[in-house]
Structure prediction request, 424 residues.
Amino acid sequence: MWQRDCETMERDQLEQLQLARVGETIHHIQAHNSAYYKKVGSPRADSISSLDALQALPLLTKTDLRAAYPFGLACAPQSEFARMQMSSGTTGNPVICPYTRADISQWAECMARCFVAAGVTRDDVIQITPSFGLPNGGFGFHYGAELLGAFYVPIGPGRTLLQLQLMRDLGATVITAIATYPLRLIEAAREEHFDFRQTKLRVGIFGSEIWSDQLRARIQAEMGIETFDIIGMTETGGVGMGIDCAAHQGNHVWEDHYLVEIVDPKTGAPLPDGHEGELVVTTLTRQAMPLLRFRTGDVTRVISRARCECGRTHLRIDRFKGRTDDMIIYKGLNFYPSQIEQLLLRHDGVAHDYQIVLDHDAQGNETMELVVERAGFLAPLEQERIHRELYDYIGLSVTPQFVAAGTIARPVGKAVRVIDRRKT
Ligand code: ZN
Prediction:
């Protein structure tokens, strides 16, 4: 463990610490940004006498953060800023997350904990493939690796053949990436007759996209590595809010830095442990842009608040199932792309790329195409079976179109799983 005392703190102590830090965060907002303080309901710090009392405060949304572009929610003067990261969506202003020096230290600490939870030590060689730019991934891994004292290779995204070359020649033991990037590496490796088992690679730390358990199993089998699911986003201060440990029984959230709640995505009402809903995050130690009850849009549930096999006491949440804004509503059915992915990837004859295209026909009826890449030969009987499973498990009456591997366009960056033309 990186910080045993913090990571194994008894539950009641941990909650006392969280409560004290909620109070400090409210004070900090009140002292530095009166408009923001008003926006969160002008709470008196001493009125939050329990963690449940926090539920009386309003929820912050991504729209609120966009509306505050660029520094409307900042709680430190710009002269104290050390750097920023940015996330942009398809519409509207981007969200800018400024960092003070203390925020960078907090980030590094969280990231070092994540590396250690994934079994990474200073003797490892870490290949960092997320971007060193406005998105937060590359720098997050960089700060964590520096604090850990490991040798790291800051290659950034793309240049797949160089990635394989350096992985082999520099003896990389750990690779960090957005979750679908390993698929590109696997494809390139096949073409180049590159065998991951001939390298020293043993750990993959992936995140930033929804990746199903089935996709995970495939990546692990193809690359011969153990993978870890890292969480965190630009708004909350970047990647590293939590990760799964070697027990792989949910993702720990570093609760001395982050307080998480699960709410009903429709009503915003709090949900009990075990119930699936939207993840809401309050930052407890961030200065430049602290957040009170921020709706992340990620769909998950609290798995357990009990001590994990690994000894850590910080709660565990489930792997993200989807985002509230990528839930597909088609002919009255609600489902997430990850549900389709799980179903498809159980079949060996299916490759790992697929695309869902939603549209209207000439009569205005909703239509859905499901384009699925084959991995070599896919027997008609198996195609029929997939068709039937889509109906049996999801209720979806759609005939998949099976196409040759490589047919679906490979974007730079995150995979495009859904194209919805109904909105245009
Ligand atoms: Zn654990």
The first helix runs from residue 4 to 7. The mean pLDDT is 95. The first strand starts at residue 81 and ends at 87. The radius of gyration is 22 Å.
